[in-house]
Amino acid sequence: MLARCGGLSDAHVQVPGSTALTTLATIDAFLRERGLSPEIPVRLECANTVPGALVLLALVARGTTLILVPPGSSSSCPGFIGAQLRLHGESHLAADPLDPERCLEITVVDAPKPLPEASPLRQGHILLRTSGSLGAPKLVVHSHAGLLANASNAVDRLALRADDRVLLPVPLAHMYGLGAGLLPALFAGASVDILDAANLLRYLERERKLRPTVAFLTPNLCTTLLRPRAATEQYRHVVVAGDKLSPETFAAAEAIYHRVVNLYGSTEMGVIAAADARTPHSPTTVGRPLPGVALRVRPTLDGDPGRSSVGELLCAHPYGFVGYVDDSGAPLPRPDDDGWYATRDLADLTPDGELEVLGRCDHAVKRDGRLVMLADIERALERLPGVDRAAAVVVGETLRGRGIVVYCTLQAAHPLDPADLRQTCRALLPAYAVPDEFRVLPALPLLPGGKLDRHALHRDALSSRQQADHEYGHHA
Questions:
Q1: Is 274's pLDDT higher than 90?
Q2: Phi and psi, residue 381, nearest 5°
Q3: What confidence score (pLDDT) does residue 136 get?
Q4: Which residues are 288's β-sheet partners?
Q5: CA 20 to CA 5: how far, in whole Å?
Q6: Which CATH architecture has domain 368-475?
Q7: Confidence category of residue 302, pLDDT binned at 50, 70, 90
Q8: Would you state the pLDDT for residue 45?
Q9: Residue 331 has pLDDT above 70, yes or no
Q10: Residue 145 and residue 22: Cα distance in Å, rounded?
């Protein structure tokens, strides 16, 4: 994989594929000298740098079981971990930034707990934590072989080529950055530039120097980059995964990047579906499932004939995850339905096989006896002049049914207040779907991987509701 890639680079380091391959052997020898055999599970704080990527790839190459976390992660260290590895923050300043002696810090764990007999983690696995956008994060287990096969399976659909210059501003410690971005690009033989702490200025600087042909973006970064600017002719396409872009944002992005490729996946399943990068596609769908992946919809919206084809998405994936484990390494139950993984996403499969993801199953509520999709509310608001982004959460009960609170960020040139939003919403949505509260924020909370942190919004809405109930009771 590395031997035929065009090379790896970041803001400080640039190495050809052949040098990177030699470095993997150097890292393996260094770890063995420190007493870390491939059978000892490790926790890696994976920096978005060339040294970070090479340490990660070296651990996979030697068959080590590892848990992958972002730098500075506050998540607990599972008891079965035998060592913790992290990259020095200033490793690029070393005389040789690829020398593991200078850039890699190892902390050996005294007397790690032995793995349970039923644990799948003896060797050759990688663990990723789910985003926690809707609940407590889980430890997801992939085999090295399955993760690599999943990535290889995505190369053709994403139309990655050996002459591509791929810009990767998404975290390597998450499935999107690793399984959809880095590994497929390396399998294609492309050159990969890794961007740390991506923001507008950092991205534009790397774009100017690298002149990428393909980039992997979060919806938030993609939207941030849509400032008035000329089309960038060197791009063939950008890949976007996570929350859906509005049709207007999708069109604006295609005017700059030639083509936007919607991708759908999860920490558990890696890449599930993607649009074909070589052909135009609808902004509302995420294309067809990858080769070997089977999808079906389990109807859940009984009593609403207008949405009879909508239901929970189930997935059968040849390269999906092994399962969940707790911090001791013991297996946990997984949400399967007779061999099909229950994604907890609401979706619709179009007659020609295209997948449209409508939101999470718990993002659909009944009000006045009618079904309300939170995604429909969000899309309606994001079409309003002045609204940059909208996110709806469910909290409490009202006379209509479940309460709905919408958080919005606004464009600088269009000041609006909650009363304006409510009045406009009444003209866009049926009465039963008009939210109960509107709140304007300077920015919406995001998870490290760039996804919207709906759990944080729900906590805020719940806290505000409890405070209001307390004040009402006090005054009463």
A1: yes
A2: -70, -40
A3: 65
A4: 274
A5: 9
A6: 2-Layer Sandwich (3.30)
A7: low
A8: 95
A9: yes
A10: 22
DSSP-derived pairing of the beta strands 323-325 and 139-143: antiparallel
200 CB neighbour count, 10 Å cutoff? 11
Whose tokens are 């971005």? That residue is: 181
Q: How deeply is 389 buried, as exposed, middle or buried, from its count of CB atoms within 10 A (0-12, 13-18, 19+)?
A: buried
Two structure tokens written together for 398: 């009202």
Within 13 Å of residue 96, how many CA atoms lie on the same side as its CB?
A: 8
**CATH tag for 7-356 (out of 3.40.50.12780, 3.30.450.40, 3.40.50.720, 1.20.120.80):** 3.40.50.12780
Burial of 256 (0-12, 13-18, 19+ CB in 10 A): middle
Half-sphere exposure of 393 (CA within 13 A, CB side): 23
Q: Tokens 């994936």, residue?
A: 317
Tokens 């995964």 found at: 241
Return d(Cα 272, Cα 61) in angstroms, integer: 25
Instruction: Supply the DSSP string of 177-194, one letter for each residue.
Output: IIIIIIHHHHHHT-EEEE
Asked if residue 40 has pLDDT above 80, the reply is yes
Closest alpha carbon to 246 in 376, 431, 94, 398:
376
What local confidence, expressed as pLDDT, does residue 150 receive? Answer: 97
Domain residue spans of the chain: 7-356, 368-475
Res 236 pLDDT > 90: yes
